[in-house]
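re: that chain from earlier
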Amino acid sequence: MTSASTFPDLAALPPVDPSLVDFAVELVRDAGELTLQWFGAPDLVVDDKADGTPVTAADRAAERLVRERVGERFPQDGVLGEEEPESHGTSGRRWIVDPIDGTKSFTRGVPLYSTLLALDDEHGPALGVIGLPAVGQVVYAGRGRGCFADGRPARVSDTAHLADAFLMSSGFTHWPEDDLIAVRRAGCQLRTWGDGYGYAMIATGRADVMVDPEVALYDVAPMPVIFHEAGGAFTSLDGRPGADGGSGVATNGRLHAEVLALLGAGTP
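^ sequence. v structure.
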């Protein structure tokens, strides 16, 4: 597990090749477009995986598309995804894909699900993409290349006080009750239907804080690069940077230390 002392300073790392960002954005758009073939279908079949989470043909097809395209273009790269076993590469690069982040929302016909793709290279996190197929938006960033929403620069908000902040979450079921009471007392406006959509809202300045008490790596792999390039901050709840801490907190940066302290983590 990456610690704060070993996580790379993204500002000190070389910029990623922009052609990789272009490839990733196109791939996410295509994978997201594929999921729309099943979105809202009255005969959609929902299966339960071994861990009890749902999966559909759309999840499987979108991940297969990503794996095939990466394999064709970069056969030496590894791929980690939610629906298939990890394929290990020899190049020092690994793509991380969540074909549908928010499958429960997807199966209910809620258009706020996302397709997520990230790349880690020999230096560290290299790029991240959040595709919102049913909304028609893609938010993406490459290390040293900036953050964008559909080609336009994206920046976090300048909200300076929690009492003025919109706080997103994928749901409040897994929140410790004391934490939920704390953010309510701080005056935050609470919103849900989060998942990748919530992180996109923070990165583009439309909301201010996103908190996920429980996440897997592929749920948040794009976020370190996206929030670094958008001028915000992303850590786990205990303040560690990186996507492998088991939780996720994204903010506009100005509110980050206060949010972590409010949730019992102290400063990062």
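The chain is about 30% helix and 20% strand.
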